[in-house]
Write a structure and sequence with these properties.
240 residues; alpha+beta; Arc Repressor Mutant, subunit A; 2 domains; three-stranded antiparallel sheet; globular
Length: 240
């Protein structure tokens, strides 16, 4: 029996353009029906069904039944992480910057990476947390939370006492595919995004991965972390 990971199988499944679009559509952690995924990938329902079956058999997706309907979601955060990091690999491009589409600007500015905050805003939040000494980089692509950080997270609405670390710790460094820098993932990243959403700082755009920052959230982010949301949004108009 070979002990080598079957990279070729996973790579072949992701490499198909239609399947790649379906996986991308599921990166925010939602479960979507086959019809919606077929529409996203611009394929027929029959073709989508074949693709989805292969993705489930390959361990990239899981299938959920609700009555007569079937829904599909990523098999876990590890799949989302793999897709996000694969997206950072591309040929070198000229330094010239060009305007992005409205949807691309929104994704670049702030989005859900499975279930935590990503994009330019996610990286800015991470930088601010490190700059204030709330988290520190650690071995194994982790972040450690300092005592000051624990107090700040609690004040922001994160129940630190009930956060359960995974085998990779409480907070993980996730490579952002648009910024090529790390943002906070793991249980802490999930809890922080949920707390910011509950507090009315930001919200998901319905039917999309993009995240909007509402005016009270922009004020809170400046007050708490010194983040200029307007400047970050303006900078997201161009490719890095």
């Amino acid at each position: 029996m070979s002990l080598h990971p079957n990279i070729a199988l996973a790579a072949s499944l992701i490499a198909d353009p239609a399947r790649a679009v379906m996986l991308y559509a599921l990166l925010d952690g939602r479960a979507l029906p086959a019809g919606e995924l077929a529409y996203a990938a611009s394929v027929t329902a029959q073709t989508a069904s074949s693709h989805l079956a292969k993705l489930c058999d390959g361990g990239l997706l899981v299938r959920e039944s609700e009555g007569r309907h079937r829904y599909y979601r990523l098999a876990g955060p590890h799949v989302a992480q793999a897709i996000e990091q694969l997206a950072t690999i591309h040929p070198a491009v000229p330094a010239r910057r060009k305007p992005l589409t409205r949807q691309a600007r929104a994704i670049c500015f702030a989005r859900c990476c499975y279930d935590h905050l990503a994009g330019r805003l996610g990286v800015a939040v991470t930088d601010a947390l490190e700059g204030r000494g709330f988290i520190t980089g650690a071995e194994g692509k982790r972040f450690d939370v300092t005592p000051d950080g624990s107090a700040w997270f609690e004040r922001t609405g994160v129940d630190m006492a009930n956060l359960s670390p995974t085998r990779r710790g409480l907070a993980r460094q996730c490579l952002d595919w648009t910024e090529r820098r790390h943002h906070v993932a793991g249980p802490l990243g999930v809890a922080l995004f949920a707390a910011m959403s509950r507090s009315g700082w930001m919200r998901r755009v319905q039917g999309e991965r993009a995240v909007e920052v509402v005016p009270p959230g922009a004020i809170a982010l400046r007050r708490e972390l010194g983040i200029d949301v307007a400047a970050i949004r303006a900078d997201a108009k161009y490719q890095a």
